[in-house]
Amino acid sequence: MRRLLSAAETVAALFLLLIALLTAGNVLLRDVFSVQIPDWYDGSRMLQGIALFWGLALATCYGSHICVDIVWEHLRPRGRRALDVAATAVTLAFLAPLAWMVWVKVGSTGTQGTMDLRLPLVNFYAVAAVGMTVAAVLAAVRLVLLLRGREALLEPPALDAPAAPKASDGP
């Protein structure tokens, strides 16, 4: 499970990095040399979709999406768990058909390509569809773990605090 989450985090971060590099590179080339990267706009849109779907997978698994916890904060642990189970079940009920429909889109894309380089859109859509499928699978895993009372497996990894220097480390 940790490997899948680590892979999803890496994929989402990689695509965010690619968006930043593509955008910054295009701005630099446009301002300095008055040229632009072919398909930078289409590429950045496709990469953003991929990053969103993979990020949605992580937010779903960790239960860390943007939410208002007014009700949840006032519940006892048993009520919190019940609300988490209900929310995850509703999320799964939406993500599973969405994943299916993204795969339908992949199948119906045909030979469509980007404007300048004619890069096949099906490749971008397929990577996004895998991300949405991972989101649906992780929602199902989260639901099962919540039903079994094993929420501890769903916590995002903690950022390790820097270790305090030891007396033997010297100045």
TrEMBL record:
Keyword terms of this UniProt record: Cell inner membrane, Cell membrane, Membrane, Transmembrane, Transmembrane helix, Transport
One GO CC term on file: plasma membrane
Q: Which Pfam families does the entry link to?
A: DctQ
Molecular function as annotated in GO? transmembrane transporter activity
Q: Biological process GO annotation list?
A: C4-dicarboxylate transport
Domain Tripartite ATP-independent periplasmic transporters DctQ component as annotated: residue spans: 19-148
List the subcellular locations.
Cell inner membrane
Q: Which segments cross the bilayer?
A: 50-71, 83-104, 124-145
> Which family is it part of?
Belongs to the TRAP transporter small permease family.
Q: What is this protein called?
A: TRAP transporter small permease protein
Native organism: Ramlibacter tataouinensis (strain ATCC BAA-407 / DSM 14655 / LMG 21543 / TTB310)
